[in-house]
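Entry:
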Amino acid sequence: MATKYSIVVTTYSRDRTGSRIIGALLAARLAACIQVVPIRSFFTWKGNLSKARERLMLIKARSKDFGEVRKTILENHDYEVPEIASVRIDKGSAGYLSWMDEATGRRGSRRHRKGRPRAVWS
């Protein structure tokens, strides 16, 4: 059974990078909601043990839009190999999932193109 919704996960370290990704995804209506959480990452990169303070971005999206979400992240990210992973949502509250449909609806009308949400964060 195909799952209609996903949480796409990525990380970043520069605030400017995060703002670009968030702005592009929301303006294109590719995400219903994006949450950002500070994290510490430990990993191996080019043969060396590494650690970094990063931000974990949780992007609530339609599963069918994963390709566009991935493309948008890659176009706006400054990492050589950014993390981009999709976790399918198999269950959720009806009201929340209905809101996700509304928030990511792109019917192609001029109203939807002109009615992009204004950013209210700093």
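Helices lie at 15-27, 66-76, 94-103, 110-114.
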